[in-house]
Design goal:
Blueprint lengths: L9 E9 L1 H4 L2 E2 L13 E11 L5 E11 L9 E2 L2 H8 L8 E9 L26 H7 L10 H9 L7 H19 L7 E9 L8 H23 L8 E4 L10 H20 L3 E4 L7 E4 L2 E4 L9 H29 L31 H16 L2 E2 L5 E3 L10 E3 L5 E2 L10 H4 L22 H8 L4 H12 L18 E3 L23 H18 L6 E5 L6 E6 L19 E7 L16 E2 L1 E8 H7 L2 E5 L13 E3 L8 H4 L3 E4 L3 E9 L5 E8 L2 H6 L4 E3 L1 H4 L4 H4 L6 E8 L4 E8 L7
Parallel strand pairs: 1-6, 1-7, 3-6, 7-8, 8-9, 15-20
Antiparallel strand pairs: 2-5, 3-4, 10-11, 12-15, 13-14, 16-22, 17-18, 17-22, 18-19, 19-21, 23-24, 24-27, 25-26, 25-28, 28-29
Helix pairs in contact: 2-8, 6-7, 9-12, 13-14
Amino acid sequence: MDNLDHSKTKIDVYILSGQSNASGSSSFESAPEKERDHSVYENVLFFGYRRRTDGEVVMDHTGYEPVREGLGKDRTHIGPELGMAEFLNTRYDGEKHIALIVKFAAGGTSLLMHEDLDGAKHYFIEGANKKEERYRLRGSWFPTVLCPSELQRSFGEDPDHPTSFLYRQLKEVLKRVFRELREKGFRSENIRFAAFNWMQGEDDRRFPDAYCQTFPWFVKDFREFLSMLTGQDHGSLPIIVGEVSETFASASPEEVERSRAFNRSLHTLEGKIENLVVIPTEHYELNELRNGENVPVGTDLYHWSYPDMRYIGRLFGLASYTMGQAELKRKEKENPLPDDSKIENPVLLSPMAEAPNYAFDHEPTPLEMRLAAVRAMHDMLSVQWYTPVSFSYRKSGAAAGKTYVFPKGDKNGGLPYTDVNVSLFGMLEYLDPDGRLRTEDLEDPEYPTLGQAVNRKIGNTCSGSTGFAICSVCSSIKSNLISYTLTAKNGFYPVGGLEYDFSINEFAELDVPETVTTVKICQKYGEKKVFEAYAKALPGDIMDMQGDDRSKGHSMMVTTAPTVVFRPDGTIDPEKSIVTTQDQRTGGYHFPTGPRGEDYVYSGRIHHDNTFRFLFDQGYIPVATAEFLGKKPYERGEARLSDDRAVESLEDLETRTAVSNYPMTLMKLVRVREDGTEERIGFHAFNRGEIGRGVAHACRVDYMTEEWPEEKRKAEPGEQYRLKVTLTTGETFTVSEFTEPDRRIK
């Protein structure tokens, strides 16, 4: 594989998983020499890895070598991979298009087993607690999504906990493969997960109903994981399930009926799970009755013979290739990927107002919206164009004398000046015949500087590109909220528990001693906390950086789940951990695709790897939109007293607490004069530290009045008072209005 130009090669990944018949327990000795397959399938590579909960590695074929026999549980056994490769090899050319089988499997393991929280027993249904020692050593496939939240949290402290261990390890193996392929030079969009092959169920045959309740959760969670990992939609990834042999363990009538009943239940999954098929492997015998005695005809009582395993592998290969290619072609037809590696027949495209419609015809899930946003931005960055005239432009905030030049007819890729509904094409109307920008036509009294006017009228911000994508799929995010307004009130939230409210940057009346920037947030929390936040970023999230100088900032969109590499001590390795992004780089960058006449200016980066170290040193923090988090942004601020009791007096008011859904910037008490005007008698402006500590979300009134002189605390009978608070949204609320009572004895 190392002699290929990986940047131009497509690689289709076929996942193979399950228990021992997937792991590969069919021995060479179970086949006559003439039925052995000694071929080396050069067009189909192999990656296989597995370890146990005690850390012992029991399968290690991680060199991406061509498939051959001996890739089973040891060098003298095979699994379905050999027959799969036999079928797949002629379907790939080994240069522009290759296949990869990734195997992660473990013998004698269960989908259903898991532990209760005290670790005392395993249960899903009564009776599923046998083979305790083996279960604790090898783990189970139980889908993590079904585990109680307390148990899920414990996995962070005990990653080798047997519940869901194999399922969690499968995810880690696929993360590793995806990372290593990209490190070898494969483009993310050319790493195509084609199908998932599943040969498991022998240990769960007694519980067909429970199995068919659990497996749909396994598939749903796994498809969502792959979508997040790759930034591509795998919501209908083909799933190929093998039947268990009807004579597994024994050919007795009781065992045969048990296996057949289980297989009948497997076929009901074809109606429950989209794009799933169960292949006919039931009649490949493992045992037979001779004179009333059970006699193995496979490798042993539980595993198919070498010849039968080859045939079964071909069935998996046929089904996974046919279904996989159909699904990949469907996705390519619906979402064609432009080839951003070169420009052919460049043309001036139409304005982005005529770009594809990314709206959904159904209520989308957060995952669907994330992937659509990634796609929308990718499409925008991949636009190809040339200019009919030469022109130059100096970006707002750029260093003096820094000018971007776009010669007439030069080939270009991406949109160098793109806001949500405006683009380069909007700029053309402001060009003189000689290509100079008529800045006088761009001036606007609404914006104090020409740079701001250009940003709004033409668009030249990196956040404009992420904004284009987000506005394409999120109904609550408006185009005029994108640049420099990643605020909670606009539906943007920091990822990973960083307590930073972007809103406080917007209000001049807030007394903040120094500008709050993402750079300072990184310094405040330190590497460990910020690295953990990076690890939680998902496709569609924004990596945002705001420097002390507002012109020094950048926004990038995350395209795949981060690659997180841990050191031996369990801490994140920031040099090897990566967040892959796409971003708009304002101004042209020449790609060295050939002689000058074949170059083109490219202003967008579609697959850009950033190490955690780089992101932290630059001061980036991850931000998600509310809709991507499965919730709606606040449309209005809210403020009130924490209880509904009527306020009886000024003295009573001082015992109360004001609460709000956004931080308060100001708490103010006013006396109402006879003419209805207000006289301010006390106020408190919340500073950045109080906002950070949460005081500005819930604050007792006496926090404001504790420094008052005594005369301010006196109230005359009949005087009216109002307690008012202003939020970071700019909204002001009257949270209490009362009249001081007449305390005289009547």
